[in-house]
């Protein structure tokens, strides 16, 4: 909770800081990477830096946290903090790095806002920063402890034991890690793993991929090839160079959007495109445990050929006692698959079970539309969970 004096200062200066945050965050990253170029080379996603999405996400999280402190002082934005903490832990972020970030962030704020940053204003925003940073540090420490690893030590050598082609641009990799603590596996349904590869220029870039299955003692993740520019340099490398027998580094599973054991409420699993990967992990878990939950699966894709895990979806739904799948294709070509609807997914056409909990994954416009449809169907906002690939731009 902010001190009363800082609360008033932050409330008064939030419009100015929020209005300038689009200038502050690029300058912050420029300063950070000039000081520590290895962070851009080996830790930060170069694609997200190139397209600006990481900067948008940082700006959104700072503004959202500060706004929450002044408008809802008795309520912590736990959902946002948990999401960031899991992502940080998956990358191996450690407590000392927060001081480095603070230095360059506040230098950027001072440069952009100039004389408006008085000592009192700087002290108030420093309080905001450390409230957020210390909350994340504590969460990340618990995540490391729960996984049985030292802080930041989350990547382990692994060997690819199998590779499967799902579609023309989606491949599934099964990797057996070496030395990973037994407490870290299997991944909880819905979680993701970090994958680090060494690219031709020597950069060791990391990406996160949802766990799409739970083979014994191994990690299964699926990758959609998204091009060879910085945004897709790792997915292209995996598709072109990583086959059975290859070595890469695999991370301990993390992720706050998980299917909770012991929850017997009806569940809605809604995905679009490659967003089906965490859904498949959840469905595989439900089938493996013989769940009797009411399960409604919704998936949207371009067409049958683009739909990864198309046959597995039907197989897993068939194994469940009370499950159904509804598939929308923008341009269907095969009437044999029950894609009874053409165009965009529309849950208003379905009988959404009362008291359902929902998990969403896909492009942001898809998830926003589905969330609105679920709310209209009576699903509580607190029971709608979403996973994103890359920086979370929902707040931004």
From TrEMBL:
Which InterPro entries does UniProt cross-reference here?
Answer: FAD-bd_FR_type (IPR017927), FNR_nucleotide-bd (IPR039261), Globin (IPR000971), Globin-like_sf (IPR009050), Globin/Proto (IPR012292), OxRdtase_FAD/NAD-bd (IPR001433), Riboflavin_synthase-like_b-brl (IPR017938)
Q: Which GO terms describe its molecular function?
A: FAD binding; heme binding; metal ion binding; nitric oxide dioxygenase NAD(P)H activity; oxygen binding; oxygen carrier activity
EC class (word) = oxidoreductase
- Put simply, this protein is called nitric oxide dioxygenase
**Which Gene3D superfamilies does the record match to this protein?**
Globins, Nucleotide-binding domain of ferredoxin-NADP reductase (FNR) module, Translation factors
Query: In which organism is this protein found?
Result: Streptomyces caatingaensis
E.C. numbers: 1.14.12.17
Q: Which domain of life is it from?
A: Bacteria
Family stated for the protein in its record: Belongs to the globin family.
Q: Where is the FAD-binding FR-type domain?
A: 153-260
The Globin domain covers 1-141
PROSITE patterns per UniProt: FAD_FR, GLOBIN
The record's catalysed reaction(s) read: 2 nitric oxide + NADH + 2 O2 = 2 nitrate + NAD(+) + H(+); 2 nitric oxide + NADPH + 2 O2 = 2 nitrate + NADP(+) + H(+)
* Biological-process GO terms, alphabetical: cellular response to nitrosative stress; nitric oxide catabolic process
UniProt keywords, alphabetically: Heme, Iron, Metal-binding, NAD, Oxygen transport, Transport
